[in-house]
Design the sequence.
């Protein structure tokens, strides 16, 4: 005989049947049933009851609605046991037992299936119950609830006719709430409800309690196959063949007078993580009243005053449930005439801040280990923690007021509020005058960086996750939303259109780079809690188990300091070209590029030298004692000049002006301008390339224009010597980019080392330095054996390495076909966000293995965007890299992700158990 029914006190039997596998028990009894059994076992006051297994549901559904043989017999014996335990009897008029009938699948599907409460009431039971409770109001209220619920859930009657009757009575009696209606009214309403049931379902409300129960069980079984539940399972990827269990449980009532109550409370605060009960309850009410939100609930602190003993008992139970489940619990409870019952418990949902505090506190209380605390927090939770966000109130207000403009790609987290500036110069000018600015552009270019730095946040209407705007924004920790193609910018009118709405430059806008939302107007933000002691603690524990370094990509001393305060152990990439875009320097850089003689170039470089020296001095001081990897100039030089299109347009304009010039001085003046524009055009034409990404850049530039990279090396060494004299411990690592062939590296290095030696000789100070290279071209990876003869370290530039391995230009692809590729499953993830392990990863693996064979102990790291991606971090660790380097705001995330990778390796754990946000 199949055992379909398990009493809450029979959880051990279910365990034996399931060969002591708790997951299988949850499959058999459903999550709620297994939990009720488990709570009963540890002595929590759970109203007695039993669970009908998921197997019974499946048998019922498979046989097209025939109840399995003996199921009803087993239900009746289980009922008898409850009757014995409670001293009450089902259908008895003298001391009746009422039960609830609830669904409960293996995985929680909140609100998707059916529930019927108060089963067991009929006209004669009601008459018996009234003298017993001395509360006709409560009795009729329970009865009308049963008829209504039974009618809608079991017999499929719509809610409206029931609600219409209630509304009519409320109006007639001039009361706001159903609970204010009199017992007589409720009795009359119950009668009307019965008529509604019969009229709309074609069958009378069943008087026989057992019949009520049987029909309710069948309704719950069927609700597994309902549309709502199917849709939910499709979305939540829950298999359709699991079936639901059904829990039949003694009803306890929170609406039996002022010593009764019902509520929901967490064992700790779900918003802040503080210890102590947090929740709400209602005196003299049923569970649905709390959920419905019609009556104002009271905080648990009130319960401590109203029913102090119950409160203390509840606290003790909450603690024991926490100890048992080793996590914060979310519990439903009912107090029936001074007796506390726990109806349900589950791991509570919580904010990122609460998750961190709870994990750390629980580890300190000895409830869980430190490693487990580290594993319970997801990298996204740490990230969330670190950025400003809109206050929920102001966001709601903006939503209500219809100020949500669009939601686009959330490429750099955090909320930003400012006035709209449509170009970088204006953004900078306004920011310098003390205004908060959000820079809004169709897309950004390298010469927009000063505006991006000055702005609070960046919004672009084009571009993808690794567009220039996204990259720079992440690099500088600026909130950014990109690809907002619902917005139409008109740069000549200085306006932005969304649907029918037009927004002008200078008006307020609020963007959330964590969610991708864009609002018009000014939302309130709350600042991140970087000094949060719990987070610091958790990350220290992460560092204890982490076995791969975490460095940062930073170009300015302030970023380096920030990175260091977040726990960076070095700088893995300084993109020196970013320093050239400063408005003070750009004209000198342009003069240097367009120099017509070596002396002119030398002069421009001499002017740049002090700037670069100052940059490096600041970085070295900020990173005192830690390595700083400085990459020599990488991009093609045309990026520092106006675009070809811009100059030709200017030139055409000047020529038209020339034709209509009226005086000789005017002609003279215009001719000078034409000449200078022609010279510029000539230079730009000379530098123009069909594929700049594959053109004159990186080491090639250093070889063609040696004076430029020699100036950079001189600046590095002069800065290093200066700070060393001040007692700073300085360890520069000079990194040569975009090497494809060993000869490029050998020749460039020889020239640079000469310069380094010159500076050290001039000053008589030695510096502890290294030369190394980026591996960002497949050929370099494949020939690592030769490359490392001239490199003391290598760093994977996985941005370029991915582009070159795929033969895909990142910016072009993300604007165009890459999204389609991902949508259609041609690629299952964006290789620019997470390392393509099979392709790019294979090249990395060859380079590490062969590089270390040729140069044992070779230091290898990564400084591409992937260095901040948790999956890529785990991969880099598996390759044996020494460090990952990422943008400063991702440093804490990387510390956690690296620790989790180490822990997963040490003892595989089920990360599906990780607490969701
Ligand atoms: C890279 O290619 O991964 C890299 C770090 O260099 P960049 O992104 O500056 O080209
Ligand atoms: Mg690169």
Sequence:
């Amino acid at each position: 005989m199949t055992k379909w029914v398990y009493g809450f006190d029979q959880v051990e039997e279910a365990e034996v049947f399931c060969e002591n596998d708790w997951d299988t028990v949850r499959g058999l009894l459903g999550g709620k049933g297994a939990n009720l059994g488990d709570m009963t076992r540890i002595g929590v006051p759970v109203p007695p009851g039993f669970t009908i297994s998921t197997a019974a549901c499946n048998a019922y559904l498979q046989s097209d609605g025939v109840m399995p043989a003996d199921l009803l017999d087993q239900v009746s014996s289980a009922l008898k046991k409850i009757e014995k335990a409670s001293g009450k009897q089902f259908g008895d008029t003298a001391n009746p037992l009422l039960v609830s009938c609830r669904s409960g699948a293996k995985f929680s599907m909140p609100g998707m299936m059916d529930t019927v409460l108060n089963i067991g009431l009929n006209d004669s039971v009601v008459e018996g119950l009234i003298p017993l409770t001395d509360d006709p109001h409560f009795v009729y209220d329970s009865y009308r609830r049963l008829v209504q619920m039974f009618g809608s859930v079991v017999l499929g009657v719509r809610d409206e006719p029931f609600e219409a009757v209630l509304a009519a009575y409320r109006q007639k009696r001039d009361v706001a709430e159903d609970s204010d209606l009199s017992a007589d009214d409720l009795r009359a309403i119950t009668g009307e409800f019965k008529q509604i049931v019969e009229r709309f379902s074609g069958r009378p409300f069943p008087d026989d309690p057992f019949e009520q129960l049987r029909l309710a069980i069948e309704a719950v079984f069927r609700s597994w196959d309902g549309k709502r539940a199917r849709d939910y399972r499709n979305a939540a990827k829950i298999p359709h063949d699991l079936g639901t269990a059904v829990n039949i449980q003694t009803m306890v009532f929170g609406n039996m007078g002022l010593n009764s109550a019902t509520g929901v409370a967490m064992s700790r605060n779900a918003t802040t993580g503080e210890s102590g009960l947090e929740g709400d309850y209602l005196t003299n009410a049923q569970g649905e009243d709390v959920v419905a939100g019609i009556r104002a609930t009271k905080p648990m602190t009130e319960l401590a005053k109203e029913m102090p003993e119950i409160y203390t008992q509840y606290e003790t139970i909450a603690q024991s449930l926490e100890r048992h489940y080793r996590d914060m619990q979310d519990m439903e409870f009912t107090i029936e005439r001074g007796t506390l019952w726990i109806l349900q418990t589950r791991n509570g949902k919580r904010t990122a801040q609460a998750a961190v505090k709870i994990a750390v506190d629980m580890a300190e209380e000895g409830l869980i280990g430190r490693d487990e605390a580290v594993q319970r927090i997801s990298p996204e939770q740490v990230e969330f923690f670190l950025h400003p966000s809109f206050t929920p109130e102001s966001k709601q207000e903006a939503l209500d007021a219809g100020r949500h403009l669009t939601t686009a790609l959330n490429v750099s987290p955090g909320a930003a509020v400012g006035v709209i500036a449509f170009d970088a110069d204006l953004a900078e000018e306004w920011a310098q005058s003390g205004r908060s600015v959000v820079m809004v552009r169709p897309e950004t270019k390298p010469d927009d960086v000063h505006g991006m730095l000055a702005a609070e946040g960046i919004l672009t209407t084009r571009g993808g996750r690794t567009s220039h705007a996204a990259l720079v924004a992440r690099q500088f920790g600026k909130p950014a939303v990109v690809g907002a193609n619902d917005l139409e910018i008109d740069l000549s009118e200085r306006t932005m259109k969304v649907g029918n709405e037009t927004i002008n430059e200078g008006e307020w806008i609020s963007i959330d780079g964590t969610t991708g939302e864009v609002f018009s107007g000014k939302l309130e933000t709350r600042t991140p809690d970087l000094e949060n002691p719990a987070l610091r603690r958790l990350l220290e524990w992460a560092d204890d188990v982490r076995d791969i370094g975490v460095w940062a990509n930073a170009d300015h001393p302030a970023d380096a300091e920030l990175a260091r305060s977040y726990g960076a152990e070095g700088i893995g990439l300084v993109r020196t070209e970013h320093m050239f875009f400063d408005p003070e320097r750009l004209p000198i850089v342009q003069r240097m590029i367009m120099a017509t003689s070596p002396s002119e170039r030398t002069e421009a470089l001499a002017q740049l030298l002090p700037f670069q020296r100052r940059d490096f001095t600041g970085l070295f001081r900020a990173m005192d004692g830690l390595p700083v990897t400085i990459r020599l100039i990488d991009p093609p030089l045309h990026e520092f000049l106006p675009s070809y299109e811009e100059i030709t347009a200017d030139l055409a304009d000047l020529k038209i002006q020339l034709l209509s010039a009226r005086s000789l001085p005017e002609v003279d003046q215009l001719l000078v301008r034409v000449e200078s524009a022609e010279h510029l055009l000539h230079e730009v034409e000379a530098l123009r390339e069909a594929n700049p990404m594959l053109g004159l850049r990186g080491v090639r530039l250093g070889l063609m224009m040696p004076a430029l990279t020699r100036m950079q090396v001189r600046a590095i060494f002069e800065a290093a010597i200066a700070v060393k004299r001040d007692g700073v411990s300085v360890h520069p690592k000079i990194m040569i980019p975009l090497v494809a062939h060993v000869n490029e590296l050998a020749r460039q290095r020889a020239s640079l080392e000469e310069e380094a030696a010159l500076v050290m000789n001039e000053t008589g100070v030695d510096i502890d330095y290294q030369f190394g290279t980026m591996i960002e071209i497949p050929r370099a990876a494949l020939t690592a054996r030769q490359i490392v003869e001239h490199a003391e370290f290598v760093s994977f530039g996985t941005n370029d390495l991915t582009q070159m391995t795929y033969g895909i230009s990142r910016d072009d692809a993300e604007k165009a076909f890459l999204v389609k590729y991902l949508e259609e499953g041609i690629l299952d993830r964006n290789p620019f966000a997470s390392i393509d392990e099979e392709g790019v990863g294979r090249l990395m693996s060859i380079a590490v293995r062969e590089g270390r064979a040729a140069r044992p102990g070779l230091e290898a790291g990564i400084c591409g965007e992937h260095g901040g991606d948790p999956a890529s971090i785990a991969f880099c660790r598996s390759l044996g890299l020494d460090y990952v380097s990422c943008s400063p705001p991702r440093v804490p995330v990387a510390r956690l992700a690296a620790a989790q990778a180490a822990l997963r390796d040490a003892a595989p754990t089920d990360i599906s158990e990780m607490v969701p946000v």
User: Anything to note?
Assistant: Confidence is low (pLDDT under 50) at residues 909-917. The longest strand covers residues 275-283. Residues 429 and 787 are 46 Å apart (CA to CA).
